[in-house]
């Protein structure tokens, strides 16, 4: 299994809603990531979890709250978002064994629209 | 931090031609340079990568070259086909326990039949 699975594929929410994005991988990877991608732009790193611990938070607003319940799952909780947060949210994973290959495996993404 | 510049931003070629995309990086400690292809509405997918101890790597019609002294690396696609049309991102990172890739801004490659 070389897949990173994300749900939902599409999400429309209002600015007062609370929703969550989910990501799952069963490759035994120990690092998981959230990226945000706007149209015609490269992915921007938001968060990195390494061995289920938050290792990097790229100064992301607190209305985005990541959670890593176990080594296979990664969530992104959304609350009080703004229309400019509308984007494709990509989850990724990588093998993390000290001599990391660096290769990122991306999920298909969750396309978020904030009204 | 690392800064990756990518050129050109768009590239149009005829089917069968070669395409070259170039990237430069700023951090001499970077040692891993992947290229990702992203088709419209799809996820980025790794197509080839190179490490700093190697100058060139080939995989069928795709090759990547790295010049550590000049801090630039390039993607070469030969005998392009319409299905090569996509956005290509170069990236750079340093070895660590996890991958902190810095992406270039991307190149939209259009291959016309």
So what's the oligomer here?
A: heterodimer
Terminal-residue CA separation of chain A: 36 Å
Computed Rg of chain B = 13 Å
- Give the biggest beta sheet of chain A: 7 strands, mixed
Q: Would you list the SSEs of chain B in sequence order as H and E?
A: EEEEEEEEEEE
Please tally the β strands of chain B and state the result: 11
Low-confidence stretches of chain A: none
Could you tell me how far the N terminus lies from the C terminus of chain B, measured between alpha carbons in angstroms? 41 Å
Beta percentage of chain A is over 45%
**What is the overall number of helices of chain B?**
0
Class of secondary structure makeup of chain B: mainly beta
**Structure summary, number of beta strands of chain A:** 11
- Give the ordered list of helices and strands of chain A: EEEEEEEEEEE
Mean pLDDT of chain A: 90
In DSSP terms (H or I, runs of 4 or more residues), the helix count of chain A works out at 0
Question: What proportion strand of chain B?
Answer: over 45%
Quickly give the structural class of chain A. mainly beta
Give a verbal description of the structure:
The complex is a heterodimer of chains A (115) and B (113). Chain A is an all-beta fold and 115 residues long. Chain A contains no helices and 11 strands. The model of chain A has no long low-confidence stretch (mean pLDDT 90). With 113 residues, chain B is an all-beta fold. In chain B, 0% of the residues lie in helices and 54% in strands. Chain B is built from no helices and 11 strands. Chain B is globular, with a radius of gyration of 13 Å. The interface between A and B is medium-sized, with 25 and 23 residues.
Task: Give the arrangement of secondary structure elements.
The complex is a heterodimer of chains A (115) and B (113).
Chain A (H helix, E strand, L loop, with lengths): L3 E4 L2 E4 L4 E8 L5 E7 L6 E7 L2 E5 L6 E7 L2 E7 L7 E8 L10 E2 L3 E5 L1
Parallel strand pairs in A: 2-11
Antiparallel strand pairs in A: 1-3, 3-8, 4-5, 4-9, 5-6, 7-8, 9-10, 9-11
Chain B lengths: L3 E4 L2 E5 L4 E7 L6 E7 L6 E7 L4 E4 L2 E6 L4 E6 L8 E7 L9 E2 L3 E6 L1
